[in-house]
């Protein structure tokens, strides 16, 4: 019987989650004794599974697709950034049994772009492709970096317009369809479109990348994504996938739970090696 503190990630599907490897590496760095598992939860069983996990002594949960919005609704106390995002990827109970929720995705994205890649967000013209839960989770931390403007495009324009309205208090945010960018130029393009999951590329016109435009895809894999290939073909100054964001959001969750901040670069390099070996 282990005395290690128990953590897990809940999702569906969950089989290919890298979270157990990431948190094991962080724990080894910080001399934290823990057990971390990836657990598949049935779609209609989320709240029961969360309650059972903590009732059995679990210390913390990460939440991934498709349960982030449900986790936000279920948590009794949300951090301000989670409340604005209405999405949660990190759960814990306090000593009084109160369930708390936070979102670390946006912090992870910004930290990867700014600290790891050396990109600028401040005063940049930003284009975000997609208007789903991933965008909702990253908008506030992105706006805290004070970009000159953010334009959100989506196939369903209404979804993009809803985000622009909800987050517009944080800065200059506009929205439209893919055709709304034909006359514009951008310094930073972030792809959060679900089209990439099937290897498709959102329809973006040529000529929208500024001379030193950086392009970031929230997806990651052993091979460049379709968006990354498009960015390279259109002479982007720098291109990255979302592996660093994955590790950085995990590091923020680790800090929330343990109050220790692990080194992320060795873990990013380790994961790159694992992906390359599996290719």
What does this structure look like?
The protein has 279 residues and is of the alpha/beta class. It has helices at 19-30, 46-55, 68-74, 80-85, 105-116, 133-144, 157-167, 226-233, 243-258, 265-278; strands at residues 5-11, 34-40, 60-63, 77-78, 90-93, 99-102, 125-129, 149-153, 173-176, 186-191, 209-217, 238-240. The chain has a 6-stranded mixed β-sheet, with helices on both faces. Strands 9-8-7-10-11-12 form a 6-stranded parallel β-sheet, with helices on both faces. Helix 1 links the parallel strand 1 (5-11) and strand 2 (34-40). It starts with a strand and ends with a helix. The mean pLDDT is 94.
Query: How far is it from the N-terminal to the C-terminal residue, by CA?
Result: 36 Å
The total count of strands amounts to 12
Strand ordering within the main sheet:
2-1-3-5-6-4
Largest sheet: 6 strands, mixed
The SSE string, one letter per element, is EHEHEHEHEEHEHEHEEEHEHH
Average pLDDT figure: 94
Shape: globular
Q: How big a fraction of the residues is strand?
A: 15-25%
Helix content: 25-40%
**Unreliable stretches:** none
Number of helices: 10
* CA gyration radius, whole angstroms: 19 Å
The SS-based structural class is: alpha/beta
List keywords for this structure.
279 residues; alpha/beta; 6-stranded parallel sheet; 12 strands
Outline the fold blueprint.
Blueprint: E1 5-11, H1 19-30, E2 34-40, H2 46-55, E3 60-63, H3 68-74, E4 77-78, H4 80-85, E5 90-93, E6 99-102, H5 105-116, E7 125-129, H6 133-144, E8 149-153, H7 157-167, E9 173-176, E10 186-191, E11 209-217, H8 226-233, E12 238-240, H9 243-258, H10 265-278
Parallel strand pairs: 1-2, 1-3, 4-6, 7-8, 7-10, 8-9, 10-11, 11-12
Antiparallel strand pairs: 3-5, 5-6
